[in-house]
Amino acid sequence: IFVLRTLSTSDDVEDRETEKGRLEEAYEKCDRDLDELIVQHYTELTTAIRTYQSITERITNSRNKIKQVKENLLSCKMLLHCKRDELRKLWIEGIEHKHVLNLLDEIENIKQVPQKLEQCMASKHYLNATDMLVSAVDSLEGPLLQVEGLSDLRLELHSKKMNMHLVLIDELHRHLYIKSTNRVGQRNKEKGRISSLVKDASPVPLMDVTNLSTPRKFLETSQFSTPGSTSMRETNLLEIKEDTELDPEENSTVFMGILIKGLAKLKKIPETVKAIQDRLEQELKQIVKRSTTQVADNGYQRGENLSQENQPR
């Protein structure tokens, strides 16, 4: 820049020539120095040039490879998007097929409910029958509501559910009023038989129910419970389970608990309470009638036995 400024501002031609010659000498000196340096460092320069060329080639190759990798990644990304959509579709289809299989299994099980229900009712396993019936009706009126082929079965099971509580109430009344008094009568007959064998003329108590497990005693166990705790009655009712291997009527108290639990599952407790209230007077009259007949028959039998013992052979 200094040389150009000097040449452009100088008006004398000689000064320009002088400056030009000085500049040319400097260029020549630089060329000579450069040639000498090239001669001295030819080997190092050649190695550096080759190394630079190699590095340049590697950088170029790396750029090409990175470009190819980017292209491959974009291609893989597109393919993965496609595969993801396919996998999602297959996953949804799998869930649908699984749901359909579960519905088919449920339909197959529900079709067997009438036969199983009849068997449970015949064996008086009412709790299992109630659970089975309630579950089947809920399924038929819920997930399987749109299945037209089950309309007849739906009506049949719904009708049985509506009338199931009547059977349970009748069984409850039978144990509450009839079977309990029959057990008392049976105990009195056995006592009377024993007394006649040992010729004991003392009167036999006809209504000894002190040690008899009655529904009232089953309910009165709640008096031992403390406030804020679960009563004995509630605990017993919650823990009651039905054993299909045993006679369901072997324990009358447990059987009545099972009946109440079944009525609760059917949501018919209000109807049960009303039925018990409506039939209470009638059932108590029947108990009095049966007891009177039994006492009269026992008294007559004892009189016959005494009259026969007092007569000579």
Q: Kindly state the percentage of residues in helix.
A: over 70%
General form: rod-shaped
Structural classification: mainly alpha
Largest sheet: none
N to C succession of SSEs: HHHHHHHHHH
Mean pLDDT: 76
Distance between the termini: 170 Å
- Give me the count of strands: 0
How big a fraction of the residues is strand? Answer: under 5%
Q: Which segments are poorly predicted (pLDDT under 50) over 5 or more consecutive residues? A: 194-235
* Rg, alpha carbons: 54 Å
Number of helices: 10
Task: Describe the protein's topology.
Elements: H1 2-9, H2 13-40, H3 42-111, H4 113-122, H5 126-140, H6 151-197, H7 215-220, H8 232-239, H9 252-265, H10 269-310
Helix pairs in contact: 4-5, 5-6, 5-9, 6-9, 6-10
List the defining traits of the structure above:
313 residues, mainly alpha, 79% helix, 0% strand, rod-shaped
Describe the structure.
With 313 residues, this protein is mainly α. Among the domains are: 1-75, no CATH class; 152-181 and 249-293. The protein is built from ten helices and no strands. It has helices spanning 2-9, 13-40, 42-111, 113-122, 126-140, 151-197, 215-220, 232-239, 252-265, 269-310. The N and C termini lie far apart (170 Å). The model is unreliable at 194-235 (pLDDT under 50).
